[in-house]
Write a structure and sequence with these properties.
Layout: H1 2-12, H2 17-22, E1 25-26, E2 36-38, E3 41-50, E4 53-59, E5 67-75, E6 86-90, E7 93-97, E8 103-106, E9 120-122, E10 137-142, E11 154-158, E12 162-166, E13 176-179, E14 190-193, E15 198-202, E16 208-212, E17 222-225, E18 227-229, H3 236-243, E19 246-253, E20 260-269, E21 277-287, E22 292-296, E23 302-306, E24 312-315, E25 322-326, E26 330-335, E27 340-345, E28 353-354, E29 358-359
Parallel strand pairs: 18-22, 23-25
Antiparallel strand pairs: 1-2, 2-29, 3-4, 3-28, 4-5, 6-7, 7-8, 8-9, 10-11, 11-12, 12-13, 14-15, 15-16, 16-17, 19-20, 20-21, 21-22, 23-24, 25-26, 26-27
Length: 360
C-alpha cells in the first residue's frame, strides 16, 4: 500500500489540485505491481476558454454521475455537436477526418495524456478501391495502445466493402486495402482481438464473424459461423418491441478473463419533437471456440463499454454485470441483472469512452 501511495503522489505532481483529486488510479489485477491502471472514463464535452480551445470535461469513472472539469485544454472542434470531425477512437486515441481526406490520430481527449504536448499523427492519404468509398468511416481499431509502436496496426472500416490497414510508425507507411466480398459486413464495426491477434468483424445479424490478419498477403477472411444457444423466452410485448427496433452487433473481448462477447443492441427513435435514437434492449452472448454463442445474463463483475470508441470490458465494483452506453443521442446503463436500461437522451459531440490506461 505504501508503494501505491508513493506512486500516486509522484504522478500527481505538476497537476492542478482539481485534477489530482479526479484522476483516481488503481492497481490492476492483470498487471504487476510496477504498473498502475486508470479507471475507464467517459468524455462529456469541453468548456470554451478562448482561442477555439476548451477545458475537457469527463466522467472520470465512466459509470459515475459526477462530471469533472479538467485543466486540460483541447480543440473545440473535437467536441462540436453541429459539425463532427471525429470518426472513432481506440485506446484513448481519437481519429479525426477533415475535408482534406487525411486521417489523424490524436490524444487530445485522453485525460491521462500530456496536457501541454498533445500527440497528433497524420496517416497517409486514403486509396479508394473501385466501387468503394472512403468518406464515411464506420469506426477505427488499433492492435496496441500506441500508434507510435513499430508493430501497431491501425484498422479503418468504411461504410461499404473497404477495410484498410496501416502501420503509422513504419517509415514507408502506406495503406493495405481489402475489398470485402460479403455484404453482411458492409455496415459493421471492426475490432482487434488480442487473443487471436487478428481484426474481426461481426456480420449483420451476428451469425458470421470474419477475421483478417494484416500481416499476410491473403486478404480472404477466416469465417466463423455462430450458433445461438440458450435463447430466452421473451414476452410477446418485449419481442414485438425488439422486432420494431434497429439492431446492431458489437464484438468485445475481455483482456482480463480472455472471454469474447457479442452484444446485440436494439435502438428505436423517440417520439419527441427532436428525434433521437434510444436503446430499448440489450442481449449479450458469450462466444466459445466452437462457434457457440450462448445467451447470458451474467458476465460477473465486468462492465462492457459501448460507444463510438472500440468496445472494451473492465471490472466495475459500482456497476458490475452491466453495459455502459455512450452514443451521439444518449447516455445509459443497461443492467443484465435486473434487465433494465436507465439513461438520458442528449446530444454528444464526442461520444467516447477512454479505456483504462497503464501508467508505468
Amino acid at each position: 500500500m505504501s508503494l501505491l501511495l508513493s506512486r500516486l503522489s509522484k504522478i500527481a505532481l505538476g497537476k492542478p489540485a482539481s485534477v489530482r483529486s479526479s484522476l483516481v488510479l488503481i492497481l490492476s489485477n492483470g498487471f504487476s505491481s510496477s504498473a498502475l491502471q486508470t479507471h475507464p472514463c467517459r468524455i462529456m464535452t469541453a468548456r470554451p476558454c478562448g482561442e477555439d480551445l476548451g477545458k475537457l470535461m469527463i466522467m472520470e469513472n465512466a459509470t459515475d454521475c459526477k462530471v469533472t472539469l479538467l485543466e486540460k485544454k483541447v480543440p473545440m472542434e473535437l467536441v462540436y455537436v453541429d459539425e463532427i470531425i471525429t470518426v472513432g477512437s481506440s485506446h484513448g486515441w481519437v481519429a479525426s477526418l477533415k475535408d482534406d481526406g487525411i486521417l489523424r490520430l490524436q490524444d487530445d481527449l485522453n485525460p491521462y495524456a500530456s496536457y501541454t504536448d498533445p500527440k497528433r499523427i497524420s496517416l497517409p492519404p486514403f486509396v479508394t478501391l473501385p466501387r468503394c468509398q472512403t468518406q464515411i468511416v464506420t469506426n477505427v481499431a488499433m492492435s496496441s495502445s500506441c500508434p507510435e509502436d513499430e508493430n501497431c496496426v491501425v484498422a479503418v472500416k468504411f461504410l461499404g466493402p473497404q477495410l484498410s490497414f496501416c502501420r503509422p510508425a513504419q517509415s514507408n507507411s502506406e495503406w493495405t486495402n481489402i475489398k470485402i466480398a460479403s455484404p453482411s459486413f458492409f455496415s459493421s464495426d471492426v475490432m482487434y482481438s488480442k487473443k487471436d491477434d487478428m481484426f474481426r468483424i461481426s456480420g449483420s445479424g451476428g451469425h458470421l464473424i470474419g477475421s483478417w490478419d494484416p500481416r499476410t498477403e491473403d486478404h480472404n477472411p477466416k469465417i466463423q459461423r455462430l450458433r445461438f444457444r440458450n435463447l430466452p423466452e421473451l414476452p410477446r410485448a418485449k419481442r414485438e418491441l425488439l422486432d420494431s427496433c434497429c439492431r446492431s452487433e458489437h464484438l468485445v473481448e475481455s483482456r482480463n478473463t480472455g472471454e469474447t462477447f457479442l452484444v446485440k443492441r436494439y435502438k428505436k427513435a423517440t417520439t419527441r419533437d427532436t428525434v433521437k435514437m434510444k436503446t430499448k434492449g440489450i442481449m449479450v452472448f458469450k462466444l466459445d471456440e466452437k462457434g457457440n454463442a450462448v445467451y447470458t445474463e451474467d458476465i460477473g463483475d465486468l462492465c462492457i463499454f459501448l460507444s463510438k470508441s472500440e468496445p472494451f470490458c473492465a471490472s466495475s465494483s459500482r456497476f458490475p454485470n452491466c453495459v455502459d452506453i455512450c452514443d451521439v443521442d444518449e447516455l445509459a446503463i443497461a443492467s443484465l441483472t435486473f434487465d433494465s436500461i436507465n439513461g438520458v437522451t442528449r446530444t454528444n459531440g464526442a461520444p467516447y469512452h477512454i479505456p483504462p490506461q497503464i501508467i508505468v
